[in-house]
Amino acid sequence: MDNTGIITKISQRSFDDTYQKLKGTITNNPNLNVMLELDHQANASKNGLDLNPTRLIVFGNPNLGTPLMQNAQTLGLDLPQKILVHENGNGIVSISYNNPVYLKNRHGISGNEEILSKIAAALDKITTVATSL
Predict the structure, then answer these.
(1) What's residue 4's pLDDT?
(2) Does the predicted model carry a pTM greater than 0.85?
(3) 16-49 burial, b if ≥16 CB within 10 A, otherwise e?
(4) Which of 27, 38, 107, 117 could form a disulfide with 72, with the two C-beta atoms 3.0–4.6 Å apart?
């Protein structure tokens, strides 16, 4: 496992298409709630700074996240889930998110393997849908 705990996938879509597909996939899932969208590029621009397209969507499923935080409250630093869509200077669009196994180790979560597996599978599926044509 990458010791940074970050999983990154390259998208086959444009930046906007990737973000919209990601948002739509999350929004259309009745188990997930979008809590925040953050446009880092727009915020940088407001301050006269340049930044490649970079957006963060924060979302969660309290039915899965709450039991984990009951096990290790410090997990609240990393939950709810976040997925970053970013484009580099060469026009390559990527999606990055926290690896749930890394979060388990980082916060010392014991047990809860089934929940962590569900979260890992859901994140993989959501990001694969968003990055694939």
Answers:
(1) 87
(2) yes
(3) eebbebbbebbeeeeebeeeeeeeebeeeeeeee
(4) 107
